[in-house]
Amino acid sequence: MLEIKDLHVSAGDKEILRGLSLHVGTGEIHVILGSNGSGKSTLMNVILGHPKYQITGGEIFFDGEDLTTLKTFERARRGIFLSFQNPEEIPGITVENMLRTAKQSITGDKIKVLAFHKELLALMKELQIAPEYASRYMNVGFSGGEKKRNEILQLLTLKPKLALLDETDSGLDVDAVEIVSRGVAKFHNAENSCVIITHNAQILKHLPVNRAHIFLNGRIVQSGGAELVNAVAEHGYAPFEVES
Ligand code: ADP
Ligand code: MG
Hints:
This protein has helices spanning 40-47, 72-78, 95-107, 113-126, 144-158, 174-187, 227-235, and strands spanning 2-11, 14-24, 29-34, 54-62, 65-66, 80-83, 90-94, 137-138, 162-166, 193-197, 211-216, 219-224. By secondary structure, the protein is of the alpha/beta class. The chain has one domain (2-243): 3-Layer(aba) Sandwich (Rossmann fold), CATH 3.40.50. Helix 6 (174-187) links the parallel strand 9 and strand 10 (193-197). It is globular. The two termini are 29 Å apart. The structure holds adenosine-5'-diphosphate (ADP) and magnesium ion. Residues 40-41, 85, 166 line the site of magnesium ion.
């Protein structure tokens, strides 16, 4: 589904990604573990085409199509979703309006207001988000945990093919991480894929992880199975440091 080959990315004159390769197959869940500042969020932003970053080498393919020529909204329409590490507040646009409009513009279908409202409330209940949040402005005055649960609400509403989750569990209490983990498990099936950036094995509890990658200094230095998650929890990143 996603094929990244020898990707080099800069912001200004700073090189952030330095020869990154990643292959995510359909139905797979991948975990990316890596120290702060190693370039994980940059990778997510580049997959969606953030204009702050320049690709100076390598390729990104999604379902066999070169992504780098597409605008961000076209990438979203192809089925790529990013849950932000720091979700933006959008004053003046309610959660319900934003989600219905997003779904409409991604699918190209007219969405029925009442049916959508019912579906949204059912999902909110599962994610333990109070119903009045549907009519609040997007993320405005939300706590950190509420913003993250709201990202999972978007995920379950938009049902993308590829979900990129950038530290969706960071800053959450154990119960909230549990809700997020169950939300991602509800989303995941054999036709879609997830790339999860995390520092915490707890979010993976309900998820069958296929591959884990250690990401240091702008590239993946080691890949393996879910056991890498425990290795990092126990020994940190020092055993994975390589000469650069
Ligand atoms: P991570 O998500 O792994 O913590 P980031 O991708 O956020 O790391 O950042 C990687 C490095 O690139 C950091 O040193 C950060 O300061 C730098 N960086 C990220 N975006 C920019 C930018 N737009 N301009 C300059 N430096 C940036
Ligand atoms: Mg980050």
